[in-house]
Amino acid sequence: MTAEKKINRIIVKFGTSTLTAGEKSLSKPRMIDLVKQVSTLCSAGLEVVLVTSGGIVAGREKLNYPDLPKFLPAKQMLAAVGQPRLLFIYTQLFELFDRQIAQVLLTRDDFVNRKRYLNARNTIEALLEYGVIPIINENDTIATDEIRLGDNDNLSALVANLLEADLLILLTDQDGVFTADPRKDSGAKLISLINQQEIPEALLHAASGSANGLGTGGMSTKLNAADLARKSGTSVVIANGNLEKILPRLALNRESLGTWFTASGTHLENRKRFILSGLKETIGELKIDSGAVKALKNGGSLLPIGIQSSSGKFHRGDSVNILDPNGRVIGIGLSNYEDEDVAKIIGTHSDNIAKILGFAFGEEVIHRDNLVLFSR
């Protein structure tokens, strides 16, 4: 690993093959070893978010491996049985190391709906702030084909983007990405670093599906997930989850194990591209005073005390134009509050937001990281 960027926040994805050690049921010895490794990262001061598969396997095991048709309701039924069992096992194992966990179930709607996107991010951020390890899975029990994320590799990449993680670790049953399928080609060579802007087409063709039939994705889904995460500003590594102390060796020692993907751009750059993409959809406006203009130009956030007026109909998470005292548009940002709430807190100190509204999503109406200022 060549990058020197400090790692503070990590997303770790446990696949089904990793949790089962290649068998058809959950491997308790394997899981306790992985939980111990996660605890080691936490003890080192890192923030760790766990994206886990295994719910359907846990359900199938609990029901003594029933012969079920291969359609979505059957899988949802297995997930409904297995997810609480999986979380119960995680709870017991993490308590051995005095770690608290919380379950977060997500669907595609939580990433495409801006309000739900912000709610999901704020919830997970709060858990991390209080030292709780979020354990994330797709909400298979209610997800339909229209809102399914498809696989937990893709989910882990979206979570990495959601939380602006420094590193995404995808654990699998292979040593990394090879030039060909190593199960079929003895001459296949491990690729230690991928730093091209685009993943080579030959590698995508060489990637194949799940080898053991337990998981929903193979190396191809991991390549796609890695590409999505690194384009959001997160470094990625695909490595063998069966290697001893693999997580500390990757996250703390930065050993050259598996296949590393360098991040393309930064989180802030990518977020601001996302904000600017909503420019044509902007329907709200916030007119601010000269003091607020100066604060924004100096890198500050937009506080309610600096707002003179609000117009238009917008919701929390929507893009709004920012106008100077002369009515000129000087920027665009994502609002922390909807229009009716902004109208109630205009000109007030941030300390009064909760008193006026009965709640608060933060002291800023627009945080500086969710703001783009235009050049004159």
Provide the descriptors you would attach to this structure in a database record.
8-stranded mixed sheet, 5-stranded mixed sheet, 15 strands, alpha/beta, 376 residues, 2 domains, 18% strand, single chain, Archaeosine Trna-guanine Transglycosylase, Chain: A, domain 4
CATH topology of the largest domain: Carbamate kinase
The helix/strand series, from N terminus to C terminus, equals EHHEHHEHHEHEEEEHHEHEHEHEEEHHE
Quickly give the CATH architecture of the largest domain.
3-Layer(aba) Sandwich
Reading off the top of the CATH hierarchy, the class of the largest domain is best stated as Alpha Beta
Please characterize this protein's 3D structure:
- The chain is of the alpha/beta class and 376 residues long.
- The chain has two domains: 9-265, Carbamate kinase, CATH 3.40.1160.10; 272-373, PUA domain (Archaeosine Trna-guanine Transglycosylase, Chain: A, domain 4).
- 37% of the residues lie in helices and 18% in strands.
- It contains 14 helices and 15 strands.
- The protein has helices at 16-20, 28-43, 55-62, 72-95, 109-112, 114-129, 152-163, 201-206, 219-230, 246-251, 267-277, 290-297, 339-345, 353-357, and strands at 9-14, 47-52, 101-106, 133-138, 167-172, 177-178, 190-191, 193-194, 235-240, 259-261, 284-288, 307-311, 319-323, 329-334, 371-373.
- The chain has an eight-stranded mixed sheet with strand order 3-4-2-1-5-9-10-8, with helices on both faces. Strands 12-11-13-14-15 form a five-stranded mixed sheet, with helices on both faces.
- A hairpin with a 5-residue loop joins strand 13 and strand 14.
- Helix 7 runs parallel beside helix 9.
- The radius of gyration is 23 Å and the shape is globular.
- Residues 209-216 have low confidence and may be disordered.
